[in-house]
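Session log. Operator J.P. requested a structure for one protein chain; no other inputs attached. Running the standard single-chain path with token output.
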Amino acid sequence: MPMDESLRAQFETYLSHLDGLIRRGRQVRETLAADPSSASAIAATRAWQEDCGITVNQLSGGSKAHWLARSFSEAFLMRSASGRAVEGAAPAEIVQRLLDVLEQAVASLSGMDDGPGVTGSSSGSSSASSPASSEMPPPRRFEFVHNAELRPVLEQAYIDSRRALEQADYNLALLTSCGILEAIVTDALEHKGLSALAASCPPAAELAEGKIVEGKIADWSFDTRLAVAERAGLIRSGCARLPTVARTYRDHTDADGERGPKAMVSDRDARLAGQVLRVVMRDLDPGR
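Structure written below.
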């Protein structure tokens, strides 16, 4: 069943919160790397870990058997050569493992088909009360894309965008997210067809940049495609959050087209582009 607005808002809140925890975790990791014995760094690490634990508990519905709760607990363990768990992983290693757990939570929430509430029931059952899937999430799929040949390409690009973000390559993360966004919106526009789009966007109603629904869709600018898709009701207003560097990402790429934007791209820019991408994916596939 389509996700209702209140649940969609809860998911967006959790995704935003997870992004904030990931950002803090990276800062903690850098501080520990600079001075592992720093009292302030250790205190900040413990506070961050506690916040991560609270969030994981909420997402797993209070169930310790939930895959997310298990992953969180295992992050604090160090494996021996025989594979047995022993206490005592290094603090920086624990931080990195927890970052990986948070990224898994983001992927799970982003790929939910539908979702129950955000807090666990008194019985602690995660299958009926937690927003994250009770099993390890499957790879992201783009079944809603009409061009079947494009789906595996988009799936790999999505993985690449998340990896680039984790590696703090914000240029590549933003470039890849925007490329996916443009591809799925273009696919939706082409499937609807120019005639139907013209009916939804009368020629008299000019878009912000002065263009109307005419000519080949492939010739429209990225910004025009987003505006027409919104006007035609294919997507909602989530693209309003896109930073300027994302809207003009094609204008800032190198001549060879293989590198990220020349303009400065911040962590916030890259994360906003990724968040908007996830929102638009749900818009285009309301049955998720």
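Operator note: The mean pLDDT is 77.
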